[in-house]
Amino acid sequence: MSQSAATVQRVLRETRSVAIVGASANPARPSHEVWTYLQAATDYTLYLVNPTITGIDGIPVYPSLAALPEVPDLVDVFRRHEELPHVLADAIAVGAKTLWLQQGLCHERVARDGAAAGLTVVQDLCLKVEYARFA
């Protein structure tokens, strides 16, 4: 599992769709900030995932990765550490290419198992910051 600048740049370049797992309607939450930035700054198709809400600002929120209308290239994760293995299992099950654990999230078993399943795994980096850095 590599998080070199070249790997991050490749992921950003090859990604067309992003699922934000743990999306929040609260503008103060990092997931909301990342979503609104990506909405404004990128051409990515964005999907919000949270089983506890149905919409944010008129945008549908899906209860799971499996409920999305397409397979996301990248799964951007804003969940607690103990929930990361479940998110990985869901990302593998739907066929995502990249599992991106937001800044502050590291899970060595998830990273190892994700890489073994063929996913690119990025840990402890903010998708918004990295996009802005390389865009």
Put the structure in a nutshell:
The protein has 135 residues and is of the alpha/beta class. The protein is built from 5 helices and 7 strands; from the N terminus they run H-E-H-E-E-E-E-H-E-H-E-H. The chain starts with a helix and ends with a helix.
Q: C-alpha Rg, in Å?
A: 13 Å
Spans of at least 5 consecutive residues with low confidence: none
Which percent range describes the beta-strand content? 15-25%
Could you report the average pLDDT, rounded to the nearest whole number? 96
Strand order of the largest sheet: 3-4-2-1-5-6-7
The number of E-state strands comes to: 7
Structure notes:
It is a single chain. A hairpin with a 2-residue loop joins β3 (55-56) and β4. The protein is α/β, with parallel strands linked by helices. It has a seven-stranded mixed beta sheet, sandwiched between helices. α3 (84-94) runs parallel beside α4 (108-116). The mean pLDDT is 96. It has helices spanning 5-14, 30-41, 84-94, 108-116, 127-134, and strands at 17-21, 45-49, 55-56, 59-62, 74-77, 98-101, 120-122. The chain is 37% helix and 20% strand. It is built from five helices and seven strands.
